[in-house]
Amino acid sequence: MRLVRQLTFTTLLGAAGLGASAAANPLSVHVLDQQSGQPGAGIQVTLEQRKGTEWMQLASGVTNEQGRIPALYPDGKAMAAGDYRIVFRTGEHFARKGQPSFFPRIPVEFTVDAPAQHYHIPLLLSPFGYSTYRGN
Predict the structure, then answer these.
(1) What is this structure's pTM?
(2) Where would a tag sit more exposed on the chain, N or C end, judged by fewer CB atoms within 10 A?
């Protein structure tokens, strides 16, 4: 019984540690291919911030096997209030699958008004449409 309690406590402690490290980065993304029901793995993603009338690239990454980039914001920098854009390069994803698609890139613009919060941007993708929302 004592061993079970100790294992449970250790598991909970480890899970809390994972949550804390994931929460340290203020921005994550997730892509799901609605047509196949599979994660959108291997999709290139860029993060940009509006500076005046220009967009400045802050970071880039590639979705992992679960279709996620758990930490897209640059390490060691605090997110500032302002306008941001994430660009998902979805045309390359469908080209690798040998499928035609309508949207070669999907830019998702959003406004950060509470920089201390975590922002999660999911993308539900199909060859001829997409949807997105602010997740958690």
Answers:
(1) 0.81
(2) N
